[in-house]
């Protein structure tokens, strides 16, 4: 282990027992992984705590099902399209483990000092008795994740004979010649297999004993290794993928199958973007709502291949692209702070076209469809934001000759300077959550959204020459 890894690795408290004798004297009793998860989940629910930090939009649908499965002690498979937060959800399971758990110091697997399972550890326990040294494992080190790929082998997951150990003089029949795979090394922890159908069927068979009998078989060895693991997995619905399938006996061994989904409303979609996106410039809530509606429009569109799905990562990447466009304009014009405006949305279709799969026959029309659905999202957001607000004074001002230019080299101050002082502009900014004393770029973003809504309602015209867009009568 490098010095850097040691620095960031959680260090156990000094007052924890360091030998088996001290562990027994402290009254410690072994618990299975599923018992730990069960007890800690019950305690969190009774205390009114959130066991699922960072998980958005699942509180009334997915999480109750998952909690029931864990309380029942079931292995779980999460079924859903790409980008629905399945892996993120599985990673939060570590929070339901005990913060520290004792293991036999120096053992190859994370064996409990009071319940060794490998021949080597049992021999050490018999020889040392109460002096068997104890180390402590943090819960963050008890989660193992494997992305299933067609080239994954039984040796990767379960284990195989180690030729080096055989060469050292051990016989082939000696269980200590085994090099343990990922699942045994996750003993007393959580094993997550992502995209389970991608695992070759003959490899899936190797998991049958792990899930039912809780032991492993390696190349005909009679070794019985009673593993203590919680096995969780993710998969796309079988009807939606041609990559593979989960064999029936393996599917039968999962106690629960929980179906995930995309955020059910705009607010949840916006919250996901806020949580996950790394924005290099300021993107206000109105534009985030536009992007959320844009993604939802894509998911409802008949020209998009819905079997593939439209990932939540699309909205995140779109927000990051819009922020990058705003930062670029800020760098070109010297304007601060860098604040995204509706003109920055034009960067989204071209950059992210490859993240959406269209139905056959739509080749060559991808940008057209994306632009149409994005404009519809702008209209829907503006319609909700400015509902009941009379924007006619703004339209009349533009019609009277106050043409408004926007673009990558137009600052927010320049945009506002093109308009006369109008009370409606303050109301527009207020609807967007911007006060009159805030910097011009923030006010300009709200005003430009109002101008774009008037254009989409055919109350204004818009002329673009590539770098500059002008709103006029």
UniProtKB/TrEMBL annotation:
This is Mg-chelatase subunit ChlI. InterPro entries: P-loop_NTPase (IPR027417), Sigma_54_int (IPR002078). PANTHER family: PROTEIN KINASE PRKA, PROTEIN PRKA. GO terms for molecular function: ATP binding; protein kinase activity. It comes from the Bacteria. One of its GO terms (biological process) is regulation of DNA-templated transcription. Residues 179-237 form the Sigma-54 factor interaction domain. It holds the Pfam family Sigma54_activat. SUPFAM superfamilies: P-loop containing nucleoside triphosphate hydrolases. The lineage of its organism: Bacteria, Bacillati, Actinomycetota, Actinomycetes, Pseudonocardiales.
């Amino acid at each position: 282990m490098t010095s850097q890894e040691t620095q960031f690795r959680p260090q156990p408290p000094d007052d924890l027992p360091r030998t088996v004798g001290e562990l027994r004297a402290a009254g410690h009793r072994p618990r299975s992984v599923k018992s730990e998860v069960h007890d800690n989940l019950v305690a969190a629910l009774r205390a009114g705590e959130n066991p699922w930090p960072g998980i958005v939009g699942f509180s009334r649908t997915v999480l109750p099902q998952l909690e029931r499965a864990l309380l029942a002690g079931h292995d779980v498979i999460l079924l859903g399209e790409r980008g629905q937060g399945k892996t993120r959800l599985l990673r939060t399971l570590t929070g339901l483990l005990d913060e520290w758990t004792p293991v036999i110091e120096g053992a190859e697997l994370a064996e409990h000092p009071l319940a060794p399972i490998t021949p080597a550890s049992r021999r050490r326990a018999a020889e040392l008795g109460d002096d068997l040294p104890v180390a402590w494992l943090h819960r963050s080190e008890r989660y193992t994740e494997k992305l299933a790929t067609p080239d994954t082998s039984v040796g990767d997951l379960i284990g195989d004979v180690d030729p080096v150990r055989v060469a050292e003089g051990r016989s082939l029949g000696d269980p200590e010649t085994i090099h343990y795979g990922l699942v045994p090394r996750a003993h007393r922890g959580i094993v997550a297999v992502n995209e389970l159908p991608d695992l070759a069927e003959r490899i899936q068979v190797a998991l049958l004993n792990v899930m039912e009998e809780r032991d492993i078989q390696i190349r005909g060895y009679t070794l019985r290794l009673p593993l203590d693991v919680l096995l969780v997995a993710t998969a796309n619905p079988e009807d939606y993928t041609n990559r593979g399938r989960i064999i029936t006996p393996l599917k039968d061994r999962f106690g629960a199958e929980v179906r995930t989904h995309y955020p059910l409303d705009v607010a949840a979609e916006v919250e996901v973007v806020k949580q996950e996106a790394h924005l290099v410039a300021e993107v206000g809530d109105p534009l985030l709502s536009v992007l959320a509606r844009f993604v939802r429009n894509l998911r409802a569109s008949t020209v998009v291949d819905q079997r593939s799905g439209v990932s939540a990562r699309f909205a995140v990447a779109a927000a990051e692209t819009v922020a990058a466009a705003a930062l670029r304009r800020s760098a070109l014009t010297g304007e601060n702070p860098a604040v995204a405006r509706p003109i920055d949305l034009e960067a989204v279709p071209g950059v992210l076209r490859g993240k959406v799969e269209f139905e056959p026959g739509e080749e060559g029309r991808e940008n057209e469809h994306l632009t149409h659905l994005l404009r519809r999202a702008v209209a829907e957001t503006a319609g909700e934001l400015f509902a009941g607000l009379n924007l006619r004074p703004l339209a009349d001002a533009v019609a009277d000759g106050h043409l408004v230019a926007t673009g990558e080299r137009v600052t927010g101050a320049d945009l506002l300077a093109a308009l006369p002082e109008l009370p409606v502009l303050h109301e527009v900014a207020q609807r967007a959550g911007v006060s009159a004393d805030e910097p011009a770029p923030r006010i300009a973003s709200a005003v430009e959204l109002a101008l774009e809504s008037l254009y989409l309602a055919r109350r204004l015209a818009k002329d673009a020459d590539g770098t500059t867009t002008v709103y006029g009568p």
